[in-house]
Task: structure prediction
Amino acid sequence: MKKKTILLRGPVLTRSGYGEQSRFALRALRSREDLFDIYVHPLQWGNTGWLNEDSPERRWIDNKVEKTISYIQNGGTFDVSLQVTIPNEFEVIAEKNIGYTAGIETTKVDHRWIQKANEMDELILVSNHSKNIFENTTYDGYIENTLPDGTVERHPQKIVTTVPMHAVNYPVKTYENLQPLDMNLSTKYNFICVAQFGPRKNLVDTIRWFVDEFKDEEDVGLIVKTNVAKNCLVDRETCEGRIRGILQEWPEKKCKVYLLHGDFTDREMHEIYVHENVSAALSLTHGEGFGLPLFEAAYTGVPVIATAWSGQLDFLCDEDGKERFYAVSFDMVQVPEHAVWEGVITKDSMWAYPREQSAKTMMRECLNDIKENASEKHCEYAAELMERFSEEKMYKQFVDAMNVEESFDVESWLDDLDIQEVL
Result:
């Protein structure tokens, strides 16, 4: 079978969630180079930085980018486009077009997302949460019909997502000989929070509630791996200033808060979780498309404390739906005005607001379990995650969701054969 020319269009070289998503999609395509002739169009993603490490994968991507430029300049076209971005940026640019998006962290998608998604032939989302939001969002619309006399009639019609949709999670990553990252920690029990310093991640309340709960304990710390946009010196100073401002409320606190800032490789991020003094992962997010840092912590065997809503439930609950984390209760509340994002986060959508007392209770319960050596169950669940979300399985799920493999038509094959009857 002839290979299909496929263009991956996405922020594949950026340090962003969509960058990680693009690289996963690319790795899935590379797992089937018998099926795909791969081309790459890298995009920028907001103000995020670009990858700068030299690696075999980076060199391979650079080669594909150069190949793509030459191919397009010479009039080349594509059988398939795979577009990794938010839906309002989807375009019809190939014979078959596939949208791949993180979807939405709230309870409703913008009507333009539905309209643009319906222009695609397939829609792939990173979690069942995102898929469910697309399926459950409807708008009242209408269709126009012009009569012979020029009169225009309007007929009510629901705006719904009609494109075939598939939820495909991320795969686990494995590394040989991981060495604990040197973070110069002075506290024995440390929670790690990996989150961008923005409204949705709820980082201010996360820090405030942690410090208020453990302010009298010298052996407990919170590691905040964060940035505002790029991992530059100005960004670090901004983050440090914000955290110091929060901590002014507890001038006599005994617990520690550490700022971890800068560019980290995937391997280095995993080396954080294997540190003997990293005890748990903490996220009081308002909503996640998937929640990759929590996923990495969970399959590394680190206990997770998190809001019990949105994309992270795909892996924080087992296949029977049982919660395998310290679940923080929440209330669904309309998104604040400052978080409304035209064309992305609608003003009438909601996200989860973790409850302060529940968050503190779960943090305390987790710490008590760790001190009592009751965290072995998390290592057992990590082994389940490693098998359930293996690269081989997730790459196959992704390629299957694209629905581009042509089935073998035996009857047509026989018809094409020159068969003569021999007496």
User: Anything to note?
Assistant: The chain has two domains: 4-170+393-402, 189-389. The chain has a mean pLDDT of 92. The first helix runs from residue 17 to 30. The radius of gyration is 24 Å.
